[in-house]
Write a structure and sequence with these properties.
metal ion binding, Haemerythrin_Fe_BS, 5 helices, Four Helix Bundle (Hemerythrin (Met), subunit A), Hemerythrin_metal-bd, iron, Hemerythrin-like
């Protein structure tokens, strides 16, 4: 049962970024399904780890694009990434030590964060790329 649904409104027009976002949606749904099915601790750790690693890789990829394009909102955008990474890493650490139970609220939070971040920060970033960076436009597709 999916909690995160990819919608056309999330498309940024940048093929790599959109593919990575879609993968994040899939990973959130996989984690959500495992939680509903009451998967064991080890399975949830693996899924959380996979989601955290993919998130870090995606953020790094976006940040490299922003630096290359001299994106003026880079620092604020990166701060948003850093806050989520810290939150997820703290949760993962606590869950690894069995200090907390992961609830469905986590996948709800991640879904909400992801959709708002894409529709706000990421689409704004890609719009800048379209207007300012000929290097980036070669890897863009039309929205």
């Amino acid at each position: 049962m999916a909690i995160a649904y990819w919608r056309d409104e999330y498309c940024t027009g940048h093929q790599q970024v959109d593919q990575e976002h879609q993968t994040l949606f899939t990973l959130v749904n996989t984690l959500h399904d495992a939680m509903i099915q009451q998967a064991d601790h080890a399975t949830l750790i693996t899924l959380l780890d996979t989601l955290a690693n993919h998130t870090v890789q995606h953020f790094q990829s976006e940040e490299e694009l922003m630096v290359a394009a001299r994106y003026p909102d880079y620092a604020r955008h990166k701060q948003s990434h850093d806050r989520l990474k810290t939150k997820v890493n703290n949760l993962l650490s606590q869950f690894n030590c069995q200090e907390i139970q992961i609830s469905l609220e986590l996948t709800e939070f991640l879904t909400e964060w992801l959709s708002h971040h894409i529709k706000g920060e990421d689409q704004k970033m890609i719009q800048f790329f379209h207007t300012q960076s000929p290097l980036q436009s070669s890897s863009m597709v039309s929205v």
